Amino acid sequence: MNIHEYQAKQIFQKYGVPTPRGIVANTPDDAVKAAQELGGSIWVVKAQIHAGGRGLGGGVKLAKSTDEVKELAGEILGMTLVTHQTGPEGKLVQKVYIEEGADIKDELYLGVVLDRAKEMPVIMASTEGGMDIETVAEKTPEKIIKVAVDPAVGFQGFHGRELVFGLGITDKAEQRKFIEFANALYTVYMENDAEMIEINPLIKTGSGAFLALDGKMGFDDSALYRHPEIEEMRDISEEDPDEREASQYGLSYIALDGEIGCMVNGAGLAMGTMDTINYMGGTPANFLDVGGSANAETVAKGFEIILKNPNVKAIFVNIFGGIVRCDRIANGILEATKLVDVNVPVIVRLDGTNAAEAAEILKNANIDNVIAATDLGDGAKKAVEAAKGV
Amino acid sequence: MSILVNKDTKVIVQGFTGGEGTFHAEQCMAYGTKIVGGVTPNKGGQTHLGQPVFNTVKEAVASTGATVSMVFVPPAFVADAVMEAADAGIELAVIITEGAPVRDMQAAKAYATKHGMMTIGPNCPGIITADECKIGIMPGNIFKKGNVGLISKSGTLTYEGANQVCNEGYGITTAVGIGGDPIIGLSYKQLLAMFEADPETEAIVMIGEIGGDLEIQAAAFIKENITKPVVAFIAGQTAPAGKRMGHAGAIISGSAGTAKEKMDALEAAGVKVVVSPAEIGKAVKEVLSK
Prior knowledge:
The structure holds 2 protein chains of 2 kinds. Chain A contains 13 helices and 18 strands. By secondary structure, chain A is α+β, with helices and mostly antiparallel strands. The two termini of chain A are 43 Å apart. The mean pLDDT of chain A is 92. In chain B, the strands form 2 sheets. Chain B has a 7-stranded mixed sheet with strand order 3-4-2-1-5-6-7, with helices on both faces. In chain B, strands 9-8-11-10-12-13-14 form a 7-stranded mixed sheet, with helices on both faces. The chains are: A alpha+beta, B alpha/beta. At the A-B interface, helix 4, helix 9 and helix 13 of A face helix 4 and helix 5 of B.
């Protein structure tokens, strides 16, 4: 689960990670009130969406008067912001964050993620703040300092020293401030079961203070049960409605831009099925994992969600029954065809536990547009042919 | 021969009396696995599925001599259960539970390693030595005895791969589902080394996914250390960047961990890489009939 910048900054403040002062607003009038409450003479109006690259997309603007705050908030609220992370369809802006202007001297980068190889959180820092960190990692990896912290002992002095010397921070007061900053951010990461935290840019002001000018946080979904206050920050409007509906039925769904709908059990086999369709010359319309407890209702729901996509020309049901029994899936498909108007060919491959019974059920039902397949390759081939109208 | 588990392996079940634990323990016993007892706090002294229930893993180990634990406890208690097993001297914990917090698994894995306990999983189908011992949730009947070792991040692709190998007239020595979470126990490298050392295993099937770099590490390891033929498939060639595909591990961002990168590395290490899982069986036949 991801949260907005303003929410990440609320969490930062709770742990003593310094940020500029700011207030979130839903209307241009609220934006003006926020600016008045913050005081000063320069404000930044920032679109709140779950995607990076907001500045380049026109979602972050500087205002030098409250009139300008109102005008810019009016422009940004309700706009569909397109950035390199939103996809071409963009994201609707429903909230703006009004923040006091900051005196930027240097722009740095600071993040915390899990290093899977070391099996520890790693703090990443770079002098290349404001840049896309993946580009920095690719082109100038030496400009990223990585410090792995063993949670068994926590953030130590040497971690801090490696960071500040690596970044070339020489002033002792600044060194101390930066180390405190990094230590606090590590605590934010650990105590909230974050999956990743990214501050880009982290700025040094003219007076040598460090501030999180941006804040991005993602959380480990499996740990949300112990963080109800974070769960409350969930913004449903940021999530794909079809993906969300699917998840309520225990289905994991992701829309793609091809023509063959897929319904598969298991994430690996679901990806493998997409790959096989591609290999056979077709294009997958979605990823859909029905999970381990598929039944008639979930299968019907799966069909419904797949068929919402007007590009779908055929559906490939590929189930390798382990614990999931194939006869149940076969009955689920029959039920589904009663509940949902399935108007495209459905290629069915059921293998594993009770596959023979399942084949018998489908054969006896004798539904026009259900085509049986013997194995994965055969099914993918038939699905590609069906989609092409062969 | 086989790796890690065989017909003599004594297994206890943590979360023995729960719904999942009961169902799968029963299936494992029917397959022939020596389930010698289980652990459920406050149910010590009872008998479940004809086997003794203990309050603690320590008691279970002392009384039964079990060396392997199959973990079915709910996600919030997995780390605790794994650490208890390690502390009690269990040699291998097979963690089936899905949805354990990453931070918990990080701590549990570090603790297990310190205490010399191996782990498999979490969020995995488990391990099976064909016709001898099944510790997990896979359908036992598709794993016919043979000479191919199998390692997979994905559950259903484990079944798909094993099924194809068997349909080609070959069979499985041991199959291990390592899981696709960010923190996992035994990985390709260690298991490849075990299969290399196992006289009965003549070829190895390795099934990976997008995300992380375990397959890249495996490729480097294969190049230096593995003489037996390896067949590999990497799921997710058609997955869009930045989207999570079910497993926490199956996410790619930028250039790190793409299917292509992994396939290229494996191919360069002399591995027979297939572009579709439908080709696994044929590829095994090809490498074994050389």
